[in-house]
Task: inverse folding
């Protein structure tokens, strides 16, 4: 199994140049995916529709589908194709983002003697938005239904806007803290306000740079995997011809 997975990965690497040579393809995932060591589950609204156990056994709505040797081969090819592409996209999407959120929280908290509860609440919204699209744990990967060619929009628009709101939304609580410090004659209020403004500007710029870099990395990876996703789509079509019930749960949708 590991040799087959390595062979698929190698074929993706070989095809990378042709993927970059063409315009990026518009790939959509029609359903959510949960991937563990032993299972792949295609889900909708938290319900498992399709399940593949050990890259070999196929279940539709909990019912085991008995396959011949060719059917089992195509199921394995399909399962390993999913494993070769989706976890890396999830890793790339989540790496560094949570650390970045923690860093923002620490910097903003450093400006105030009080914990900015507004910031914590806002950052929780950011984390939820991210986890609604991409999630990973010690033993699983999750990706929601979405257009893989528009991942950059998710980071540069939706996530960026939420983080900016989180940072600037915490200004009120920081100013209250600074006001308290002024009343108790602790420190120079003007210096602290100026320092706060400078830090906010730096944070905003760093946020934008970080998210743009993340979006670019994901865009490049999606383009790199374009040919692999095309191949996965073709494998899915083969499997659908063998098991027509799968047409209702079409996962990979190429719109180029």
Result:
């Amino acid at each position: 199994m590991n040799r087959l997975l390595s062979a698929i990965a190698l074929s993706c690497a070989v095809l990378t140049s042709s993927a970059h040579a063409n315009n990026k393809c518009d790939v959509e995932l029609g359903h959510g995916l949960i991937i563990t060591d032993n299972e792949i589950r295609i889900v909708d609204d938290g319900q498992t529709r399709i399940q593949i156990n050990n890259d070999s056994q196929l279940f539709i709505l909990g019912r085991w589908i008995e396959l011949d040797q060719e059917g089992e081969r195509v199921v394995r090819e399909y399962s390993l194709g999913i494993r070769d592409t989706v976890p890396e996209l999830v890793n790339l999407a989540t790496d560094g983002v949570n650390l970045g959120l923690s860093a923002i929280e620490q910097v903003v908290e450093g400006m105030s003697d009080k914990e900015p509860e507004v910031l914590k609440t806002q950052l929780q919204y950011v984390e939820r938005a991210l986890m609604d699209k991409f999630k990973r744990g010690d033993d699983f990967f999750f990706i929601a239904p979405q257009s893989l060619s528009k991942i950059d929009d998710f980071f540069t628009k939706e996530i960026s806007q939420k983080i900016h709101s989180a940072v600037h939304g915490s200004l009120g609580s920081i100013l209250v803290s600074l006001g308290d410090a002024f009343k108790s004659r602790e420190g120079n209020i003007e210096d602290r306000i100026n320092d706060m403004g400078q830090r906010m500007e730096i944070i905003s710029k760093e946020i934008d740079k970080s998210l743009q870099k993340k979006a670019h990395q994901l865009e490049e990876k999606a383009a790199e995997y374009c040919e692999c996703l095309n191949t996965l789509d073709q494998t899915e079509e083969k499997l659908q011809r063998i098991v027509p019930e799968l047409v209702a749960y079409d996962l990979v949708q190429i719109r180029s």
User: Anything to note?
Assistant: The radius of gyration is 23 Å. Residues 21 and 223 are 10 Å apart (CA to CA). Helices lie at 2-21, 69-94, 97-109, 117-133, 151-169, 171-183, 189-224, 226-242. The beta strands are 27-29, 32-35, 39-44, 47-53, 57-60, 63-65, 134-136, 141-143, 146-147, 252-254.
